[in-house]
Task: structure prediction
Amino acid sequence: MKALVYHGPGEKAWETVPDPTIRLATDVIMKVDTTTICGTDLHILKGDVPAVTDGRVLGHEGVGTVVEVGSAVSSLAVGDRAIISCISACGSCSYCHRQLPSHCLDDEGASGIGWIFGHLIDGTQAEYVRVPLADGSLHKLPKGVSDEAAVMLSDILPTGFEIGVRNGRTSPGDVVAVVGVGPVGLSAIMTAGLYGPSRVIAIDLDQNRLEQAKTFGATDAVNSGADGWKDEVLAMTDGLGVDVAIEAVGIPQTFEMCTEIIRPGGTVANVGVHGRSVELRLQDLWIADAAITTGLVSATTTPMLLKLVAQGRLTPEKFVSHRFDLGSIMDAYDTFGRAAETKALKVAIAA
Result:
């Protein structure tokens, strides 16, 4: 089969690799119908994730069709179409019982890491993929839900909701600020509305993405490249500060921005993946009763979000800005990697 293969920092290739096979009784093999590219894939290509080794097939998001089923799989059959979750879950270990499959203890010997696709095992940017722990790691696709909507439930929508909105303790009437409105930040904006905030403020340097944020549910947009951006945000809260600040970039500057705009008793929900140390000004934050949360998505809310998508309450297909066929995945990477120029949000890559 053909797959997108990592060959070290800055090196990738669309090449022929062996077809995946059933290794354990809990596996299924899926034909990948639709996949996409995540910002984490770009981090891998920069060399920020050293656990990803030469020869790894990338990708952790996808929608596919089951073509082979392991003998211990009980909920899936050949021909079923399903969302491939970015998190693999056994459903029976201590962390899965605590609704934290992001730390599943039964993931291919990873010992506490639920994200294994395109990381520790071959991923979804390929014609076929082996899905371990299939009963706990796939979500059957309801009729009427498009592939382009469904693939956003593999990762970005539950990430924005669980690690941003829910960890941020968002409540009805809150003022929520989302710093960084790329795909995950926009996911937080889209799902924040489920908790009834009074305002959702999008903050970014990119004016195009700020305009996009308004179509995803932001009530206000602030360009952080302008002088006085912080005063503009505080003015929307009578000078008190926002209740929840969601960090969705992963750099020290944006984390610090979040700590500067929360009110006393507010929460900074860090979603961004940080590649270097961040200064924590605890000497200032302790007296403000500030809370800081972090996390890797567990995707336990995917079934709930999928119901809302099926009912038209959420429309994640809006994330798709560019479309490619699987054989053009190198072009898709080029487009996604130059998002500031191409205005790419998410790319849909169909078989």
User: Anything to note?
Assistant: The radius of gyration is 20 Å. The first strand starts at residue 2 and ends at 6. Residues 101 and 213 are 30 Å apart (CA to CA). The chain has a mean pLDDT of 96.
